[in-house]
Amino acid sequence: MCGVFIVVSKKNQLDIEKCRLCLDSLDHRGPDYKFDLVFNNKKIFMGQTILSITGKPQVNLNSYHCSNSGRYNIVFNGEIYNYKKLQSEYLRSKHFFTQSDTEVLVNLFDYLNPKKIAKLLRGMYAFGCYDKQKNFLYIFRDLIGEKILYKFEDDQSIIFSSEIKPILSYIQKFKVDMQKLYEYFFSRHLLTNTRSTFQKITPVVVGSAFKIDINKFRTEQIFQEQIHNLVDKNLFNELNSMKENEILDEFNKKCLSSARTILPEVNFSSVVSGGVDSSMASWYMQEASDEKDINFVTLKFGLKDEASRNIEQFSKYFQKPILSKEVVIEEFAKEMTKFYEKYSIIASTHSFISQIVLSGFVKSLGNKVLIGGDGADELFGGYDYYKNFHKITKIPRFNPSPYSGYTDLSIKFDDFDNENFFRRKAEEWEEVLEIYKHIKDDKGRTLQSILLLDSSRELETVGLRSADLMSMTNSVESRSFFVTREMIEFAVNLPIRYKIDLNSNNKNFVTKPILKKNFIKIFEENLLFDKQGYSGFPNEAASLILKNNVSSFTTKFKPIFDPENKTHAMDWKFFNTELFLRSLKTIKI
Question: What pLDDT does residue 307 have?
Fold first, then answer.
């Protein structure tokens, strides 16, 4: 895992020292090594901070990011899981100094066209590759969006960065996107798939690859693939015809394959939270790791977290004790303060802060990699709210999910463009319903569409964004067990009865029954517990910091609501927005 910062000037030479200062703010993403490259008469800056996981980049640090021909240079964030296979098939005769995925990746550009490379890559990544010969810049981002890359463009420059704050520090003059900020109050969590909370700063679209012709500043998309494209009528029919025991066998194979795919080349930690997803993922990582040294870790929040209080019952299933860290409100508040000062963004969900605490614990154990269970709830139907969908008898006009659809908190803003907001939501809904048109049952088609939207909207900007950004706060790489391409393809084509079974006689198996039935084959059924993330103490800590003063938010945005009907969820959104607005005053280069 690394930090990437790229600046392309459209007019004058760049201030290289200014670029380097912005790159320095990504040191936490790559504390091991750092380099920067300057091209095109100081009009292109490409910098990277390095957290070394695969290979030994220090052996050839000055050139491992450059292809053997000298034509291509790369700055790369992520892991290419199939890099050894790609090296064997396409670069067999070439000598590699560092044996890293970065070195393999940049050399692929010497022999394959970029579209072919995009089709071949398996992993989590966001990178830029510069073609010196043609003066092209290629930008790639992975299928599900495990690795984030933000883009800014105006008449002076184009910037790409692994985080938003280096961009804000570079451009200095920025504006909050008020319409996007308003949208936060009409969804369960902040969704920033296509826009950030700042004007002109946008996430690079997931699964995309495009080139920028720097001679003409013209952008051309060369590849696009999202998880929607993995929905396959034939695979759905094949899985639908299988018996339950056959589906369970197939799922077990996918889990073993996923564990082997994401297995790090270094010692690592894996979360055992007491819930289904992380506990099962950790068990499979243990099965795949052979002699690798794993630390099993968990957080405890006292009486607020029932699942973690029973964590010791899992110990007999693991070869090592489960290491736990007790978290108190004061520590949570301290980490929350650091978060806003460091990132100047809204926390997409309150579990962001818990992820910082967890990654700090992992770092203290001497590990660079953390395995988590993100994605299981969206892909396999785990959220408790899904139990409410038993009332569905026909396809609704709008997406009924609070995660990717609309949430009514009884709040209004005078200048919110709600017509545009609902139009985009309606278009999303119609698009995904069309993808599942081969499902003739209205309820089944509706539920599949909900999960696909939750997986492509909620998962990317909440679970995966949290895992990446918060883990990297403490220089720890996060890998998500349930979001390998093979697992995603299985999930989006799995019949709905294995993901949400509203007819189940056992209330424990209404949500994600396929995971839970597999879980009890590994663990005891009495350990079955629905747990969703580490909630921690978000409202309590924010209240402690702000002393309930949200004047910046109420003054600037003038929300209209009935104070007597103010909910716990609304309180968190008020606190979160207030802390974000205050943090903007700390931005400097």
Answer: 58
Residue 585 domain-assigned (yes or no): no
What's the 3-state SS for 19-82?
A: HHHHHHCCHHHCECEEEEEEECCCCEEEEEEECCCCCCHHHHCCCCCECCCCCEEEEEEEEECC
Rg (CA), the chain: 23
Number of domain units in the chain: 2
Nearest partner of 481 among 227, 247, 251, 224, judged by Cα: 251
pTM attached to this predicted model: 0.95
- Greatest Cα pair distance, the chain, in angstroms, is 72
Name the band, by pLDDT with cuts 50, 70 and 90, for residue 59: low
Q: Please check whether residue 371 is in contact with residue 262, taking contact to mean a CB–CB distance below 8 angstroms.
A: yes
35 domain-assigned? yes
- pLDDT tens for 177-193 read 999 999 999 999 999 99
Is there a contact between 459 and 374 (Cβ–Cβ < 8 Å)? yes
Q: What pLDDT digit, counting tens, does each position of 366-421 carry?
A: 999 999 999 999 999 999 999 999 888 899 999 999 999 999 889 999 999 999 99
**11-20, 437-446, 548-557: which has the minimum mean pLDDT?**
548-557
- Helix/strand/coil for 255: helix
- SS3 of residue 220 by DSSP: strand
Residue 538: enclosing H or E segment and its boundaries?
A: helix 538-546
**H or E stretch at 104:** helix 101-111
* Residue of 376, 358, 572, 571 lying closest to 469 (CA atoms): 358
Going 25 to 30 to 34 to 39, the CA torsion angle's sign is: negative
pLDDT in tens, 123-161: 999 999 999 999 999 999 999 999 999 999 999 999 999
Looking at residue 457, what DSSP letter applies? I
Based on the fold, state whether residues 221 and 234 are members of the same structural domain: no
Q: Is the CA virtual torsion 304, 306, 310, 315 positive or negative?
A: negative
Q: How confident is the model at residue 35 (pLDDT cuts 50, 70, 90)?
A: very high
SS3 for 502? coil
Q: Are residues 213 and 246 in the same domain?
A: no
What distances in angstroms separate CA 383 from CA 271, 273, 315, one per listed residue? 19, 16, 26
Neighbours of 550 (CB within 10 A): 20
Q: Is the same domain home to 232 and 221? A: no
Domain of residue 162 covers: 2-225
Cα–Cα dist 274/380, whole Å: 18
Same domain, 325 and 191: no
Domain boundary among 515, 539, 563: 539
Is the per-residue pLDDT at 535 higher than 90?
A: no
Cβ atoms of 227 and 488 within 8 Å: the answer is: yes
- Look at residue 566 in the predicted model and tell me its pLDDT: 84
CATH number at residue 112: 3.60.20.10
Which is nearest to 331 in space by CA: 350, 354, 306?
354
What is the arithmetic mean of pLDDT over 318-323?
92
Quick check: is 553 in a domain?
Answer: no
> Helices marked H in 473-512 — which ranges?
485-492
Between 118 and 95, residue with greater pLDDT: 118
Let me know: does 455 contact 493? Beta carbons within 8 Å.
Answer: no
243 and 203 within one domain: no
